[in-house]
Amino acid sequence: MWGGRFSAKPAEIMQAINVSIGVDQRLWAQDLAGSRAHCRMLAAKGIIEQADADAILGGLDTIEGEIRSGAFPFRDQFEDIHMNVEARLNELIGEPSGRLHTARSRNDQVTTDFRLWVRDACDRQIVQLQGLQRALLARAEQHAGDLMPGFTHLQTAQPVTLGHHLMAYVEMFGRDAGRFADARARMNENPLGAAALAGSPFPIDRHMTAKELGFDRPMGNSLDAVSDRDFALESLAASSICAGHLSRLAEEIVVWMTPMFGFVTLPDDLTTGSSIMPQKRNPDAAELVRAKTGRIMGSFVALSTVMKGLPLAYSKDMQEDKPPVFEAFDALDLALGAMTAMVAALQPNTQRMAAAAGAGFSTATDLADWLVRELNLPFRKAHHVTGAAVKKAEALGVDLSQLPLAELQALDARVTEAVYKVLTPEASCASRQSFGGTAPDQVRARIADWKTRLA
Ligand code: ARG
């Protein structure tokens, strides 16, 4: 393709380090779309003859058919997807194929293809995230009133509902979808027509190709167009944050599934057994969702590192942009799919969760709040009195709600029987009516909000 000024073929090692077709053949559909748009624009602007354009478009259709049927010869000798397509086009239609690359370089071609691919990937994540949110919403609605312990430091803190806990993830995944949408909107500009780096002397119409490829406008600087990969990085940043959320939920499923917690089980088809220990039921899918985070976050680091010291404009380093992005999105596709399946299939042991919600002095804050409300104690003082009550209950081996009134009155003589009403986990949850709080009607209201947002 560029042999004119060369008299020797590339060394085997040159070929080995240079070849990228094994990776970038995944861009074939985007490459054909970009070539079609470019070809039509060249003909519309009179830069190439309509007859040549027709031959090119016909050849591209044949190539698409070959790729879809598996008959297309992807060849290492042609380095990447762009040259493989062009070489095949030449075999199919002969000389007119050579006119397609007028006013174009692989530099603007590859970044156009890649932008289109990443744009689709972002759209796909948004759809998948919404699917996961819907699965969470359905489960949250089922369990809007079911108690579980809320934790800080993984120590029992205050009772919450399972619905409230699941809705926390609906919020997170909503922001994740928003990040993909933001990244998509920012990346949706057309680099095609930047050519090698400086633009083109031909009367090309970059608005026309932008429109055909669904971009909002042409990019405003040809150097920037061929040399930045921030769109890919931004999608990896969004992926990394999303993977972090998935990993936290995965971790909770793993913990909740241990017999010591016994909060949830997963059905046979989403767990695995052990080859030696017959009793085992392992949450492998959750563990792998948690582990995929490593690849995804690693991809962001890999691509940032590739990009960080490159002078403008294109450098071949940028060919290394694709493996991390493909790897990250493959991992995220799987992680989102697996998490959605697990959320839909989780079988909570609501009795065990409710029992745990009431254990561990989880309503101690409610006692302190009662002392503030009813006896007008300063909160710090109430905190101290409650701490003493917990200490006493612990010594007697009872829960706060079972602590005799006389013991409470020994701490403050004004305590009455009424205090016991706030010491149950049900009352604790129901009392947290602040917006976004864990009271079941609050949780149901937020579920309703999200249903509207996702409708
Ligand atoms: N395969 C190359 C890549 O992915 C295409 C661009 C090649 N451009 C060049 N000037 N060698 O980056």
TrEMBL record:
This is Argininosuccinate lyase. The lineage of its organism: Bacteria, Pseudomonadati, Pseudomonadota, Alphaproteobacteria, Caulobacterales. It catalyses: 2-(N(omega)-L-arginino)succinate = fumarate + L-arginine. Residues 4-298 form the Fumarate lyase N-terminal domain. The gene is argH. Pfam families: ASL_C2, Lyase_1. GO terms for molecular function: lyase activity. It comes from Brevundimonas kwangchunensis. CDD domains: Argininosuccinate_lyase. It is found in: Cytoplasm. Belongs to the lyase 1 family. Argininosuccinate lyase subfamily. Pathway: Amino-acid biosynthesis; L-arginine biosynthesis; L-arginine from L-ornithine and carbamoyl phosphate: step 3/3. It is an enzyme of class 4 (lyase). Its EC number is 4.3.2.1. Residues 361-429 form the Argininosuccinate lyase C-terminal domain.
